[in-house]
Amino acid sequence: MNNTHLIFLIITGFMVFTLFYSCESSSSGGGSGELISSFNSSKSHNTGSNCMNCHVQGGGGDGIFSVAGTVYDEALNSVLPNSIVRIYSSPNSDEMPIAVIEVDSRGNFYTTANINFGDGLYTSVEGATTEIFMESPITSGSCSSCHGDSTERVWAK
Ligand code: HEC
Ligand code: HEC
């Protein structure tokens, strides 16, 4: 093997290593990657269930969600894809939201963004026509721990 071949081999080896390493570090293994729902995406599952039964530290779901749930239509029978969930620091707000989360094609929304609920944040859901606010503050983004359990499902129109 001459020197040109050796250099070629070293360079190729380095490129393969770099490629592998960068794929490895951008994957979401163990919940370290960023995940956020978007319009028309269908990567989610378990529509209507409490996502945070699993998508929490040590819970086994891929990604630790700060906010997640499912939006239904007004009749509460079918999901309402492509609606929008927002998180605000004050109630009925027209200020800039802390987070804007697009609802995917399964009616689900989720984000791994770091959101500090502190003493409480406010939330709304907007469908095709109306932004509906939840009156009371929330200290958790686990929407389906209440909605679909102790209170009716999250809905919009
Ligand atoms: C019973 C446990 C469980 C529940 C409940 C659950 N998940 Fe998951 N989820 C998992 C597991 C495990 C994976 C990884 C394997 C897979 O894709 O099925 C996953 C994967 C995902 C992924 C793909 C992540 C990626 O890396 O592409 C998304 C998105 C997701 N879940 C969203 C949700 C949403 C939104 C909810 C609630 C509506 C939810 N999950 C409820 C266990 C759960
Ligand atoms: C601790 C329980 C709880 C959590 C967590 C919770 N909610 Fe609520 N939500 C309620 C209750 C109770 C009401 C009705 C009273 C009110 O508006 O404060 C409500 C009302 C709403 C309404 C207004 C519905 C209407 O008929 O006017 C929306 C929209 C809403 N919630 C969205 C959400 C979203 C989105 C999340 C997650 C980011 C969430 N909620 C988390 C309990 C909860």
Structural write-up:
By secondary structure, the chain is α+β, with helices and mostly antiparallel strands. It is built from one helix and seven strands; from the N terminus they run H-E-E-E-E-E-E-E. The protein folds into two domains: 1-30; 34-157, Immunoglobulin-like (Sandwich). The radius of gyration is 21 Å and the shape is globular. 23% of the residues are buried. The model is unreliable at 16-31 (pLDDT under 50). It binds heme C (HEC) (2 copies). One heme C binds at residues 67, 69, 85, 123-125, 132, 134-136, 138, 140-143, 145-147, 151, 154.
In short:
Keywords: Membrane, Transmembrane, Transmembrane helix. The protein is of the alpha+beta class and 157 residues long. The chain has one helix at residues 3-26, and strands spanning 67-70, 84-88, 99-102, 108-111, 122-126, 131-133, 141-142.
